[in-house]
């Protein structure tokens, strides 16, 4: 190798090295963005699909893969059915531990089961009877939507039944509380005795109220929150009446006895209204089924005799 070529290679390597050093020094220069970055809240740069989410099912990997489609289906169900606010309110009224996301996932599972049943029925009808495609498709869609709507209606019925149970348990709870207060116990002690000696949905609500009172919330405010958590009018009147009695110093035993009497009168009125509605409902089979059959049995022998 000639000395000129060696000198050219050495010069080239030296020039490249000097360029790299200068580029690195320029890259390490502190900019304005670097100076103010520690004082700003930076958004995470990771993808939303890679972000960790709390799992609601025993299969977290499958849940993360299906999460985008589940969110889209949840928004579709919200347009077709009840809103998220309504669902959260009914979940609270039902008294369960299920969250809004868990309910949406369960509703999607019901819809998937309804879709599978509709597809099975459509395939069976198409193979056996040769039914046209459009009615089969409509039946499949109705099965899927009907299953999702059925889960929503089941939540509504569960919330309504729990409110009925709260109203039914109120008179006994109020009378026991009146006896405890009349025997000399304070409001908190009487509520604790009620929680220890009773079971049921209203006892669970009283237990939750006591927990809030022990955590530092005033008992009157905890009772007002209890009234806001229920849609049962007797329970709301009971909680608000006890809260007002505690704030104004009214004799609590008399208030509780009045509340128990009002609750029993309200339950009696509701029973009478339900009986009146059932009586009208019983007229339908009597008029349209029993009466025509009775008239037929009365007229049939005469018609047979005239025919002979």
From TrEMBL:
InterPro entries: T2SS_GspF_dom (IPR018076). Residues 174-297 form the Type II secretion system protein GspF domain. It is found in: Cell membrane. It comes from the Bacteria. One of its GO terms (cellular component) is plasma membrane. It comes from Georgenia subflava. The chain crosses the membrane at residues 6-26, 108-127, 133-150, 280-302. Keywords: Cell membrane, Membrane, Transmembrane, Transmembrane helix. Pfam families: T2SSF. It is a multi-pass membrane protein. This is Pilus assembly protein TadB.
